[in-house]
Design goal:
Length: about 375
């Protein structure tokens, strides 16, 4: 049996947002984007949602009310929370046109959580009101660490319906393909990767669906991105909080998939996790099993980063290091490849026979290789 998180842990750190949070809750540390030009106005008092820095389309918002300063090396904002404020966020229907929608995205610092380095304001501006294109609403996020479709339909149904009507009114010539509430649609990795989701649903080659995303023939919104859009448009909540899913792995490598999640504030210290958890969990990783795992000691988790952190896996012991052995020609990498990209050729040294235009970097071939060969790194070497 896996140990459960203490009830006090859940009560204390996974609050419903209907109370007052009061006085000195702690300090928050947020990285300053590389290359940013900083003003000399720090330290300064900030309010929740206030812009502290804007750089290359990315905004750094104050996560709480408090006093913001810069660390000595000027690599981090340090915000000391004080005062009190209401966290009540009732649903309130609002009318938007295209300019006010973009303004709201910009004000809330909303980001696509499906596409790399894509502020939503910049993304939506790529699509013209009078153009014909496809809008795709996916019920999944990239690794489906949590079921956001269920959260939205259960807790934000009115906002969700309002947003669909809004998309249709702003882009009257666009074709809206909504895959929410499709009972036959079950998640299986890599269904959360945008180009693969389009490939599966519209039966088009991956290279073509990838091109449609790059050339803005498809406006793609995954469930986690939609969740935060709804929070801003209809609950007036900027992108300063994000869910962190927690998974547990025992000494035998078995993963407990019971849903555990915390809705955390950007820059929040993660020291509460080991402090409130069974002491047998000593190792942690922010990567999924489909990515290269970088193990951390649970005592040095640092601070929550809403742009990078969405799940954490806790281990009873250090995950076994992968040792590469010779290929045994089992062809498992090819058998499991969801796009038939022929990854075995990278092991054989026949790079030209690898279908790199079909590869979606899902990591499945590496996970299932019985020889422990890191095909993922070989893929990174040929895909630019």
């Amino acid at each position: 049996m896996f140990p459960r998180l203490p009830r006090a842990f859940a009560r204390k750190f996974h609050k419903t947002e209907n109370k007052k949070e009061r006085t000195i809750q702690g300090q928050f540390l947020i990285p300053v984007p590389a290359g940013s030009v900083l003003s000399d106005s720090y330290p300064t008092r900030v309010t929740h949602g206030q812009v502290m820095l804007a750089h290359n389309g990315k905004k750094v918002l104050a996560p709480v009310n408090g006093v913001a300063s810069l660390t000595a090396d000027q690599k981090y904002f340090q915000i000391k929370q004080d005062g009190s404020w209401s966290t009540t966020s009732p649903y309130h229907f609002r009318q938007y046109d295209f300019p006010t929608l973009l303004e709201s995205f910009d004000e809330g610092a909303l980001y696509s959580l499906d596409l790399m380095e894509t502020p939503l304001k910049d993304y939506f501006q790529k699509f013209k009101k009078d153009s014909s294109f496809k809008i795709v609403l996916s019920p999944f996020c990239r690794y489906q660490h949590l079921n956001f479709e269920e959260m939205i339909l259960r807790d934000m149904k009115d906002a969700y319906l309002s947003f669909i009507d809004l998309l249709k009114s702003i882009f009257p010539k666009a074709e809206v393909s909504n895959f929410f509430e499709v009972s036959s649609l079950d998640f299986k990795h890599p269904n959360g990767i945008p180009e693969f989701f389009l490939h599966k649903q519209f039966h088009e080659p991956v290279d073509k669906t990838r091109k449609s995303l790059i050339q803005h023939e498809v406006l793609f919104l995954g469930a986690e991105t939609i969740f935060h859009i709804l929070r801003k448009l209809y609950y007036n909540e900027p992108f300063t909080k994000r869910h962190l899913a927690v998974f547990l792995v025992d000494r035998k490598g078995r993963m407990d998939l019971e849903p555990r999640q915390f809705f955390l504030t950007n820059g929040q210290a993660l020291a509460f996790i080991p402090a409130n958890l069974d002491k047998r969990y000593k190792i942690a990783s922010f990567e999924t099993v489909f990515e290269e795992v970088e193990p951390l000691d649970v005592g040095s988790l640092g601070y929550f980063n809403i742009y990078e952190h969405y799940s954490i896996t806790l281990y009873e012991k250090l995950p076994a290091a992968r040792k590469e052995f010779s290929c045994i020609d089992c062809m498992e990498c090819n058998n499991y490849c969801p796009t038939h990209a022929n990854p075995v050729q990278l092991i054989k040294g026949k790079v030209e026979e690898f279908e790199k235009n079909q590869c979606i970097s899902c990591g499945i071939c590496t996970v299932y290789c019985p020889s422990g060969i890191d095909i993922r790194k070989r893929i990174e070497g040929v895909i630019v």
